[in-house]
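Homework help thread (please don't just give me the answer)

Our assignment gives two proteins as sequence + C-alpha cell strings and asks us to describe the second one. The first is just a warm-up. Here they are:
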Amino acid sequence: MNEPLVSVVMVVCNVDAFLAKSIESILGQTFIDFEFIIVDFGSTDQTKAIVSSYAAKDSRIKLHEIPNCGLAAARNAGGFLAQGRYIAIMDADDISLPNRLQLQFDFLEKHPDICLVGGATEWIDATGRALGIHRFPTEDHKINSTLAVEFPLCHPTVLIRTQTFVLVGGYREAFVYGEDYDLWLRIVEQFRCANLSQVVLKYRNHPHQVQSRKSRQQTLCLIAARASASLRRSGKPDLFSSIKEITPDVLAALGVTSAKQHVAADRDWIRAMYEAGDYVTALNAATKVLHSSDWEYAERWEIASMRLTIARLYWREGRFAKSFLNAAHAFIAQPTMLARPLKPFLRWFRFRWEMSVRPQRP
C-alpha cells in the first residue's frame, strides 16, 4: 500500500460531545489521499467507542491507545506515527471545511519554501451558532512579528511538512498548555510559514476547552515560550529543553517577576472570558486590573491590548463614548500595533463628528 500524502492527527481524551462531527468533517474532505491517526490518551467516556465505530467503516482511520499523559506527549505520539508528506492538525471539537486539505495541500505543493500553512476560521459556540470570522496574517514576516504578542496561527488549521515537524523535535512536554505556541516559535526561527485567507475550519469555542479550564498554567507556558525564544536569539542555551515543569519559580529565576506573571495571567484570562462570550465578567475584570499595582509594570503593548479589549466590550454595550475613549488610549499607548483594529472606532467617531457639525435643515 502506498504511503498517504497527508497524515491527519487528532488526539482525544473524554471528548465525546463533539467528536462525531469532527471525525465526519475529515472523512468528508474533497482531498482523499490521507491517513487519519487518532490517539486516545486515557478516555473513560464514549470517546473510544465513537472512534472505533468510524474506524470499522473507514480504513483510513488508525486508532492508537496510549496511557494517560499530557497533551504535548499525546500530540507527539500521533505526529511521530505520521507516514504522510504532510501532517494536518485536527482537534476533536472543531469542524474542518470540506476543501480544507485540498486548499492547503495545493498551497504547499506550489510553495516549496513554505513549511507550514494555516488558515482563517469561523468561530462557533457549543451549539454550532456562528460567532464571527477570525483571520490571521498571511505572510511570513507578519506571522513572525506577530508571534511576539499573540497567536498568528490557529493550531487546528495547520498543515505542516512532516520533515519540519521531525527536525524541530515536535512538541515539548513541559509546555503542557502552550505546546503549539512554543512549536511555532521554534519553527519560525528556521522556516517560513503562511496562512490562507480562506476559512478552512469552524473553531468551536465552549466552556470546557483547555484554555478556559487551565488559563493560569497556559499563561505560564506562553511566558516561558517567549523567554525560551529570547534565550535562543541571544545565543544562550535554551534551559527549557531540560525543564520538566514550568512553574512561577522557574520563570522568576529567569527574571520574569511575579508582577509580570500576574499581568500576563490577567490579560490571558480576560481574553478567554471575552472569547467565551462572558462579556460582563470580562469588562468588570479588565477595568479593575488596569488600576492594580501589578499593571504599573506592564509593557505598552499590554496596556494597549487591554484598552482595546475594554473598548470592544463597551462597544458591545452601546456605550460608544467610553468605547472611543478607551480605543484612543490604546492608540496612544501603541499606535503602530493598533492602527488597523482601531479603524472601525475612528470611522464611527468621524461619522458622529460630521453629524454634529452638519447644518440642520430649516
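The one we have to describe:
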Amino acid sequence: MAKISPTTSFNADHFYLPVVGIAADMPVHDSGQHSHRRHQLLFSAAGCITIEMETKVYLLPPGRAAWIPAGVLHRAIMRGVIAYRSLYFSMDLPLKQIPLQIFAVNPLLFEVIERMAFWPWDMSAESQTSLLTVFMEELNTAPKENWGLLFPQDRRLSVWIERIRQGELPLRLNIFAQQAGACERTISRIFIKETGMNYQDWRQQWRILKAIERLAENESISEIAQALEFSSDSAFIAFFRQHTGVTPTCYTS
C-alpha cells in the first residue's frame, strides 16, 4: 500500500525498509509541528506546500521537491495539493548530507519519485537499490531554488515578526521605522546581519511567497494584487513575472 487518504494513519518511522513512499491528494492539510527519524522528500504536481520552522519558512511550489533532513522540526501546510508524494529515507543509507533545500525536478527525477512513491511497503530492500542510486544521482545534480525566507531574531522585532507569521503584510520601510521607533538604517542593518537581505528585498521575497500561496487557494489576480498592496493588477503581474519568469495565470495552469 502506498496510496493513502488524508485521514490515513501513517508513521514512516515504524518501517524498516531503506525507503518508504506514500502518495495522496491533499487539497487542504496541516501536519502540525513534528519531526522524523528519517530524511524526507516532499513533492506535489499542483498546489503548494508551506514548510514552517522556528526561524525560517520555505515555500514548495508545484513541480519542485523539498529535502527535509531527519530530526528537523517542521510544519507542513498544504494548499490545493494534488499528486502529493513523500519519500522517507533511512538514516542508515550512505546519503550525502543535504540541508533543508528546494530543488527543481526534471522529467527523469519526477518519474523516479513517482515510481518510488508507489513502492509496496512489503518489498525487499534489495529491490530498491538500483532506482535509489538513480534518485540520488539526479537529486545531487538538481538545480537548487531559493524559496525560503529567514526571519530576524532581534528581540526588538519579535512582536512585529509574530504578526508577520500570522499573515500581516510587512510595512514599507519608512512606516515600519516609525512604528518600531527606530531609524531606517538600524532596521536595514538588522535585516542584512540576520537574514542576508536588506529589508526591501526581504519584503519582496515575502510578497512573492504569499502570492504563490494565494494562487494555490484560487484567489484572483485582482484579489492578490489588492491584498499585497500593488498599485494595479498589471503591476502585480509584472512583479510576479520578474520573480518567477511567468505570469500568475501561466503559473497556475
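TA reply:
I won't write it for you, but here's a hint about the kind of observation we're looking for: The mean pLDDT is 91.
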